[in-house]
Write a structure and sequence with these properties.
The chain is an alpha+beta fold. It has 2 domains: about 130 residues, Phosphorylase Kinase, domain 1 (2-Layer Sandwich); about 180 residues, Transferase(Phosphotransferase), domain 1 (Orthogonal Bundle). Helix content is about 35%, strand content about 15%. Strands 1-2-3-4-6-5 form a 6-stranded antiparallel sheet, covered by helices on one side. A hairpin with a 4-residue loop joins β5 and β6. α7 runs antiparallel to α9. The longest helix has 20 residues. Pfam families: PK_Tyr_Ser-Thr. Belongs to the protein kinase superfamily. It catalyses: L-threonyl-[protein] + ATP = O-phospho-L-threonyl-[protein] + ADP + H(+); L-seryl-[protein] + ATP = O-phospho-L-seryl-[protein] + ADP + H(+). Keywords: ATP-binding, Kinase, Nucleotide-binding, Serine/threonine-protein kinase, Transferase.
Length: about 325
């Protein structure tokens, strides 16, 4: 594993997939690991947060924490941990979010949690991870379907140095584009599209998009601060907001997701790390201020070259929308033998 691969390995935040060999056995974890009593969570899942200002969620989005069983940890990130678990009669992924310590942190993280819950509940698509429900107490929890496959990034790493068959790569790209088209039709910008946030289904024939932690409503982009996605897949206009001093804001559109899609598509077609030889920050800087893009193989069909170059265009207004991308990919897929 080279430096870039190791770097990206450390960024695998919230896998909602069960990747152990024994998927039928649910094991309890220590209370210290979970941060609450192992097994059934207890509480009613519907009361106001303790030690923080109460925030509201539609009661229809909440589930009874007494019916939620927490198993072993699948992954963790800066703002929480993900566990496998059970809710009623189904296997679920349980994302437990931190609440913060200061009043400012608590308010920010609770707002982020509420926003993620509302957005996940608004959209339903076969290529989006299914939202099950949420709890406010004893901790902030989001429960989703538990996918038995691995992340797209790990799948691609396991395949190296081989390439995906072209029809498989385009099929995965179509899954991603359709999921993004659904989000954008609901005026939701994901802002963190990357292989780590794409999970394969059990048959490894399709992928689903996960993790709405950085998603925003498109109508609120003028109010967004510099909280953004992972640098290597970040649109140039997003990186420019990161370089602004704290508190400054800049407007951007759903086309930031189109740029990220182009980098993921390039990975599907080449099975290489984008911006090889660069750190994450170097990659983002090169893309934003030097207009550097991943090199396109000479063997790539012209239609795909055109799609890549259109999607990662410097001017967001030139980039196609996902409805157009789905149409182009379907047309290309039809031409394959």
């Amino acid at each position: 594993m080279n430096l870039e691969e190791k770097e990206e390995e450390e960024e695998d935040k919230f896998p909602l997939s069960k990747q152990s060999e024994n998927t039928s056995e649910l094991k309890s974890c220590s209370p210290e690991d979970v941060g609450l009593q192992a097994g059934y969570m207890g509480g009613d899942g519907r009361g106001p947060s303790v030690g923080a200002q109460s925030f509201r969620l539609d009661e229809r989005l909440l589930i009874d924490a007494q019916l939620l069983f927490v198993g072993c940890k699948l992954g963790e990130g800066a703002h929480g941990k993900v566990y496998e678990g059970r809710y009623q009669d189904q296997n679920v992924a349980i994302k437990i979010l931190q609440r913060g310590e200061t009043e400012e942190e608590i308010e920010k993280l609770e707002a982020r949690f509420a926003r993620e819950v509302v957005m996940m509940s608004r959209v339903q698509h076969k290529n989006l991870v299914k939202f099950i429900g949420a709890c406010k107490d004893p901790v902030m929890v989001i429960a989703t379907e538990l996918l038995p496959g691995m992340t797209l990034r790990k799948y691609m790493l396991n395949l190296r140095p081989k390439l995906l068959e072209l029809h498989v790569a385009i099929g995965f790209a179509l899954d991603i584009a359709k999921a993004m088209d659904c989000l954008h039709s609901n005026r939701i910008i994901h802002r963190d599209l990357k292989p780590d946030n794409l999970l394969l289904t059990a048959d490894q024939k399709s992928v689903k998009l996960v993790d709405f932690g950085l998603a925003r409503e498109e109508s609120l982009t003028e109010m967004m601060t510099a909280e953004t996605g992972t640098y290597r897949w970040m649109a140039p206009e997003l990186y420019s907001t990161v370089t602004l001093r704290q508190g400054n804001k800049k407007h951007y559109s759903s086309k930031v997701d189109v740029y990220s899609f182009s980098i993921v598509l390039w990975e599907l077609l080449t099975n290489r790390m984008p911006f090889e030889g660069m750190s994450n920050l170097q990659a983002a800087y090169a893309a934003a201020f030097k207009q550097v893009r991943p090199s396109i193989p000479d063997t790539l069909p012209n239609d795909l070259v055109f799609l890549l170059q259109s999607c990662w265009a410097e001017d967001p207004n030139i980039r196609p929308n996902f409805t157009q991308i789905v149409r182009m990919l379907n047309t290309f897929l039809f031409t394959l033998p």
